[in-house]
Structure formats: C-alpha cells, structure tokens
Amino acid sequence: MTPRTRGAVFIALAVAGLAFATVDTPLHPAGLAIAALFFFLATGVFSRAGGLAHSLQPLVRISVRVEIRGLPLEGGAIFEVESIKAVGAGLLIHLRAASGGSRRLLKIAQPRSPRPEQSRFEIGSAAYVSWAGARQPLVAGTKAPAVVLIPVS
Fold it and tell me: If residue 105 lies in a helix (H) or strand (E), which one and from where to where?
C-alpha cells in the first residue's frame, strides 16, 4: 500500500469515527477518540516526516553509523536499522547495536532539510533529537547536520 493510499484510508476511518461520534449513544466518546487517532496517523503519512520515512525505507535492515549534531553516536558504534516510521511530525528510527543488545529509539522531531547522498543520508535540522529517551544537546558553534546515517559495508 502506498503512503498516499494509507493516508486516505486513515482519513476515511477518521471521518467514520466522526460520523459515529454524532450518534447519541454511550459510545459517543469512542467515536471522537477513533477520529482523533486516525487524523493523527494521517498527519504522519502526509507530513514531511512521513515523506522522509518513506524515502529512508531502503536503510531498513542495513548496518549504519550514526552522527548526531556532528558527534558519532556511542563512539562510532555500528547499528542495524530495524524500522523507520513517522508519527505526527516526528521521525522514529529504531536501531539495534550490531554487537547485540536491546532495540533503542532515535527520535527526530520536525526533521527538515534532508540531503540524500551516495554514501550517507543527512537531516539538516530538527526541533530536537533524542537517543534512547534522552535529548541530545546542541553543540555550540557547530553547523553540523542534526542527524547523519552512514551505511557501512
């Protein structure tokens, strides 16, 4: 299913939820909740993050090194990309260390200025970047991209 088709399905389900919410029954709040959920999912599909998630899909199951604001993540460790999803205006990338361990989340809020290149993929700026639940600080005086994913052989 293409992203546009998925978005259209989410919007149709949201409208159905709104229609259900107009019926005067004890389940009226459930219709509103369903509508809100599917409208939120549709915004992820049609957002900038949704387009990025779609264009980054070739990196799934690929080993990468990650840089956040010019600094290598965990000393330049190699990670395998497990999934790439958009939720609202955020880009969620699940990574697992190539040496094993648990899956961790790289969250890029409001990603902007993507630059796909031959040997790497840059996200130029973001509202913030978090790794495993902790916001990563801005590095003073640098103009490094927010996030860089570098495939390794």
Answer: strand 103-109
Is pTM beyond 0.85? Reply is no
Q: How far apart are CA 57 and CA 65, in angstroms?
A: 16
Work out the angle at residue 7's Cα, subtended by the Cα atoms of residues 36 and 64, and round it to the nearest 5 degrees: 105
DSSP annotation of 85: E
Within 13 Å of residue 97, how many CA atoms lie on the same side as its CB? 11
Contact 121, 59 (CB under 8 A): yes
Cβ atoms of 21 and 28 closer than 8 Å: yes
Cα distances (angstroms) measured from residue 101 to each of 60, 90, 104, 108, 134: 17, 24, 9, 22, 18
Measured in whole angstroms, the distance separating CA 52 from the mean position of its chain's CA atoms is 8
**Rounded Cα distance, 119 and 151, in Å:** 7
Query: What 3-state DSSP class applies to 59?
Result: helix
For 110-145, write each residue's pLDDT tens digit.
998 888 887 899 999 999 999 999 999 877 777 889
